[in-house]
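Blackboard transcription, Thursday session:
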Amino acid sequence: GENVEQHPSTLSVQEGDSAVIKCTYSDSASNYFPWYKQELGKGPQLIIDIRSNVGEKKDQRIAVTLNKTAKHFSLHITETQPEDSAVYFCAGGLFGNEKLTFGTGTRLTIIP
Amino acid sequence: SAVISQKPSRDICQRGTSLTIQCQVDSQVTMMFWYRQQPGQSLTLIATANQGSEATYESGFVIDKFPISRPNLTFSTLTVSNMSPEDSSIYLCSVDSTGGGGYTFGSGTRLTVV
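(Written on the board underneath:)
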């Protein structure tokens, strides 16, 4: 089955700087890679996703890049703000299939 | 996207007892999913619940321990049976809100077993 590894486990960034979280996956058949943000006491919230037919996707300050050859994908947050502080999870799987495999999470702290 | 209401939000239970968690969705969905998130850990799929059929459990999870009901297209329950301290976790329900895997999650049930 799929195995998703996520790094780093914790990340502290000065407000206004960029943050990058990286994930690798093992199953070359996987073609769908969402990212979730989980704030304290809440369920994970989908913030961006990418399918394997594209290499990059942007939504305002958030972008995700995918390298199919190397089987890794990354989340990029620019101009970080205090409200970006949360735990971020990557996931991988087959588009249209319910079985996503989640990474172990990255606790992002934005330092004012 | 779908809105999910999950109850209770938290509970402290005695070992050996059972807790039923409810998940209500504001729209009809084919499949509902139950996840466990152990303290400081990632999300692990427990089972997939389809209306009108038995739930499909992932490796390591069994129906006797985690019975699931799915009486209609907007509601599901997960019961954590004969609880032990190792069952202390956050339990989350989710649905596919985009038609392709972009899940919407409930706010979770934080369970502590003492």
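Lecturer's comment: Chain B is about 0% helix and 50% strand.
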